[in-house]
Amino acid sequence: xxxxxxxxxxxxxxxxxxxxxxxxxxxxxxxxxxxxxxxxxxxxxxxxxxxxxxxxxxxxxxxxxxxxxxxxxxxxxxxxxxxxxxxxxxxxxxxxxxxxxxxxxxxxxxxxxxxxxxxxxxxxxxxxxxxxxxxxxxxxxxxxxxxxxxxxxxxxxxxxxxxxxxxxxxxxxxxxxxxxxxxxxxxxxxxxxxxxxxxxxxxxxxxxxxxxxxxxxxxxxxxxxxxxxxxxxxxxxxxxxxxxxxxxxxxxxxxxxxxxxxxxxxxxxxxxxxxxxxxxxxxxxxxxxxxxxxxxxxxxxxxxxxxxxxxxxxxxxxxxxxxxxxxxxxxxxxxxxxxxxxxxxxxxxxxxxxxxxxxxxxxxxxxxxxxxxxxxxxxxxxxxxxxxxxxxx
Amino acid sequence: xxxxxxxxxxxxxxxxxxxxxxxxxxxxxxxxxxxxxxxxxxxxxxxxxxxxxxxxxxxxxxxxxxxxxxxxxxxxxxxxxxxxxxxxxxxxxxxxxxxxxxxxxxxxxxxxxxxxxxxxxxxxxxxxxxxxxxxxxxxxxxxxxxxxxxxxxxxxxxxxxxxxxxxxxxxxxxxxxxx
Amino acid sequence: xxxxxxxxxxxxxxxxxxxxxxxxxxxxxxxxxxxxxxxxxxxxxxxxxxxxxxxxxxxxxxxxxxxxxxxxxxxxxxxxxxxxxxxxxxxxxxxxxxxxxxxxxxxxxxxxxxxxxxxxxxxxxxxxxxxxxxxxxxxxxxxxxxxxxxxxxxxxxxxxxxxxxxxxxxxxxxxxxxxxxxxxxxxxxxxxxxxxxxxxxxxxxxxxxxxxxxxxxxxxxxxxxxxxxxxxxxxxxxxxxxxxxxxxxxxxxxxxxxxxxxxxxxxxxxxxxxxxxxxxxxxxxxxxxxxxxxxxxxxxxxxxxxxxxxx
Amino acid sequence: xxxxxxxxxxxxxxxxxxxxxxxxxxxxxxxxxxxxxxxxxxxxxxxxxxxxxxxxxxxxxxxxxxxxxxxxxxxxxxxxxxxxxxxxxxxxxxx
Lengths: 393, 179, 311, 95
Known about the structure:
The structure holds four protein chains of four kinds.
Chain A: E1 9-15, H1 16-26, E2 31-33, H2 41-52, E3 59-61, H3 66-78, E4 83-87, H4 89-104, E5 110-115, H5 129-133, E6 140-143, H6 147-162, E7 170-175, E8 183-189, H7 194-197, E9 214-215, H8 224-253, E10 260-263, E11 270-275, H9 278-291, E12 296-301, E13 303-305, H10 309-316, E14 321-326, H11 337-346, E15 354-359, H12 369-379, E16 386-388
Parallel strand pairs in A: 2-3, 2-4, 4-5, 5-7, 6-7, 11-12, 11-14, 14-15, 15-16
Antiparallel strand pairs in A: 1-8, 6-13, 10-12
Helix pairs in contact in A: 1-2, 1-6, 3-4, 6-8
Chain C: H1 32-42, E1 47-51, H2 55-60, E2 72-73, H3 80-98, E3 104-110, H4 111-116, H5 119-128, E4 132-138, H6 178-183, E5 189-193, H7 198-208, E6 215-220, H8 224-227, H9 234-243, E7 250-253, E8 256-259, H10 269-273, H11 288-309
Parallel strand pairs in C: 1-2, 1-3, 3-4, 4-6, 5-6
Antiparallel strand pairs in C: 5-7, 7-8
Helix pairs in contact in C: 1-7, 3-5
Chain D: E1 34-38, H1 48-52, E2 58-60, E3 66-68, H2 78-82, E4 88-92
Antiparallel strand pairs in D: 1-4, 2-3
């Protein structure tokens, strides 16, 4: 990694929340509507600071709840503004109703989600409960592995969401505390260059009194399903735009972005699939296992919605056993969320890899090398289908 | 890779110390990561934070288990030997806030003392130990040149507060002693 | 008080334009359109409306039919004030950053969407001081879902969730004092509206254009279906509501109260109650106390308003 | 609306209705059980019926005379009730 700053970018040390706030600033957002919740608070504090010091020309709506945060965001987006919001866990749950509406009304809002466990018991640390809970709401979802990715993905999410063929909101996930509060080095752009990649929003179908339209009507049996089919196709086809924007940003920044990151998968007999910051830890473990002659690989998803199922089928076919790592769980379901999705994805293969569901790190429970070793041992056991790491028995 | 664990009590700037050192390392061109250990604790409760510094990118994202260096910001925690030496590498470094002539038994480790209490009272007028302790850490280990720490400090403070803290850092850097 | 420069004196001065058009599917005799068409006449372009879920929203935008000739947005039930906040803020930002036009943003909600589920969003928007108009059309129950009681339902009224039972004779609680709640936020302008007093209504709507910040209107909206009343009687019932002091017409400018339609010889409340089936059970001898209580409350409220105008 | 697309590919995005006032295509006059009849000789052009009609089914003409639009009138009878000169009368809908 080059140490020196260039004219285009600057190397700084920021925590994940601050990095996201800088991304919103660099995206020159017009409206931010957000309500504070740990571990997202630093984002709203930093953005407020930018606005109150005149460094960012935007309206910061200090709403009275997350429900109103997203409601105001939808309104602002319909008016043609570039809109950012951020939340976590309980706050996202309070937004839940409006999440479906925001995507169905095709408002290209970008939201940063500091992933946090659901209550009860109340816990402010990382789980992926919140991200999973909204997987069916029609939002695009990305997972950052580190602070640099959190910053970059927010910028890319604006470009993807606002593309006329997409016009669908995005969530950028970053692990609560592990990324939101960790300071790391990253490169941020000199603001002057952002316009090259991310020009101002050109709204489509925005509110205009000279061409008055009705947004959000009632649609019954005759039209509801047609309208839903249209939206379904939009989200499915968003993948092409996502790949194109990832490519463009990769070229522009020199940092490679792909929907899926694979590591040592070419000849892998065993694989782990993971989301978020745990990918780095697992990659270091793959290095260690490879050093011991074990043919292990890693798949981590930068893109979670739309789910990159075709690629996963290609990458994971021929692997003997896969440990699907879920930082969440379901009650009474057939495995946790990512596990279910990987299982569904692989079902159409003639030969199915064996699957192990690894539930780990709930509520911020630290995941270290010893936990990875335990996961590997379970993966070698065909009799185990599910394990709660660290709370076995 | 150098792994550091910070011990102190809520309100003593444990997290701030780790943050400042991380930023200093980044300004020095290194890769560094600051990991706070957050709980619901308020002022007074024992608090930890972790810093990793390396010349290469750091991918791992878990708490430090086997630190190379432990910094004990709160003098009272010195008595909790098992707590502060937990996982510490053999011949690991411990930097403690304690008058330098006061005897201490922490066999098997390289123990440094600095009278951060005295320095902070002299320079800041209040028992805020973090800046003198980071100064002591750099004085003892020389892992990062002092100028980058001052640069990180300049982001956070200005005017006389900055001046006082820089003096505290320099005194920590110079007055730290191997016990 | 602002000078009444733009005031109208007769109905004929109300412009002959309709931005809310026929073909909507509100009930025959509904009080809501009488409000809406005058709002759209009195508030100038550029304007945009936000509608909370409810009768008006459902009946005016059944896909692909819309009765609106202005930009109209529906998002959900409880958040009209929040959505309007977002639109207002967006146009403010876009005006500043890109030379766009500032819009008159109007939020509409029923009593359910305002008194109950939407009060938090409303309070937030009022406190933040957005430059918008919020109008509550109050038909005193959840009419859209089938006449369930709301915080706006008056004492004693029968609804499907506060029926005229043999033990509990209609709603046992008082109507929430929405205007007082709004005024307590320190808004620049708040006023009550009634369709039977169209010149008063229209002048108050015009006045909203003169204030920067949140403006609030509380509109008495007759509902023949929910009130078990004759469709043709909607305006007459509304008129009786004013004449019996059930619905005082007043306005509040920066905390300064003014009664806009003075009632010198109020009619007894029975004249109002007897027009609607929802109050029929109150005329049984054992429920007489409820009528007395309603009568006492409206008189006290009127006296309180009279005192407030003198402050 | 007969011209509105029935193929999801052709629908305007997001369920937006992009024809302002398209409900004019939906005739609510069929809802009516009783119909208002206007006696123009009694009309004093006060506009009360025009103002109160919830269905915008009373047209106010240039000379301030009014006419009833039976395509939309739902027959609520407010106009007849409020008319100060009894120039409108409600009669049973026939046929």
